[in-house]
């Protein structure tokens, strides 16, 4: 559904200065009766009437504000949470079926919260704390289940795990992620330049990333490849095929499979392989 269904000044509050005005405006939009809601939903479903969809969305914007306020404890701007919730509301309107006998507000809450959840998880930390569906459920429920500051004790961990139907170690891992903090890689302008070790840039040094070592490594790998190909070219066709089949192809062939292929014993294939490997090693040592 297009964002053009709703006037831009109602869909996305521009900032904290206009947020109060936005909330006042959406609260002025009349609440639809059941009959009005179903009539508009049918017009949109049957005739693709965008004006009907716009009225459905606008009449529920106040509900998005109510849901978004429940996520104000994540350190994100309320205006951003409302904007994401509005997107979820529009998705709900697009999928709403008035014949199911439920009000749009009951149907839309899932879509509104889903969009807000995605936004929170994308922006709450630089490093993602929850990627799977189970981790996302645990992320939001764990914050609600923690009754005090500090770490959960073992009894609390077990109770949360039982409530959410997960293992206690999963709860402990998520609590560790929630308790972590983002750290800037470099010092900020306010930090003491005499103590650079406080920032990860001061102690996380990667010597392999230097251009000279990277170039040297690439040259060495290329040289080894050239030696390998030269050594393979010095083998007879059968020995070359054995080495390639046993070491360079995926899936690799067994000794018995190669024995069947050449009509010899598996022990003979092993001997040929050993002799070929000895020639290759000599080529590398030359």
Distance between the termini: 69 Å
Roughly how much helix do the residues carry, as a percent range? 55-70%
The helix-and-strand class reads mainly alpha
Element string (H = helix, E = strand): HHHHHHHHHHHHHH
Poorly predicted runs: 1-6, 126-130
Q: Which percent band covers the strand fraction?
A: under 5%
Number of DSSP strand runs: 0
Mean of pLDDT: 77
Write a brief structural summary.
Helix content is 65%, strand content 0%. The chain has helices at residues 8-11, 16-28, 34-47, 50-58, 61-69, 78-95, 104-123, 133-145, 154-164, 168-179, 211-233, 237-248, 255-262, 266-285.
Explain the overall architecture:
The protein is mainly alpha-helical and 286 residues long. The chain has helices spanning 8-11, 16-28, 34-47, 50-58, 61-69, 78-95, 104-123, 133-145, 154-164, 168-179, 211-233, 237-248, 255-262, 266-285. Helix 5 packs across helix 6 (78-95), helix 12 (237-248) packs across helix 14 (266-285) and helix 13 crosses helix 14 (266-285). The chain is elongated and about 90 Å long. The termini are far apart. The model is unreliable at 1-6 and 126-130 (pLDDT under 50).
Notable features of this structure?
286 residues, mainly alpha, 14 helices, 65% helix, elongated, disordered N terminus
Question: Topology, please?
Answer:
Blueprint: H1 8-11, H2 16-28, H3 34-47, H4 50-58, H5 61-69, H6 78-95, H7 104-123, H8 133-145, H9 154-164, H10 168-179, H11 211-233, H12 237-248, H13 255-262, H14 266-285
Helix pairs in contact: 3-4, 5-6, 5-7, 6-7, 8-10, 9-10, 11-14, 12-14, 13-14
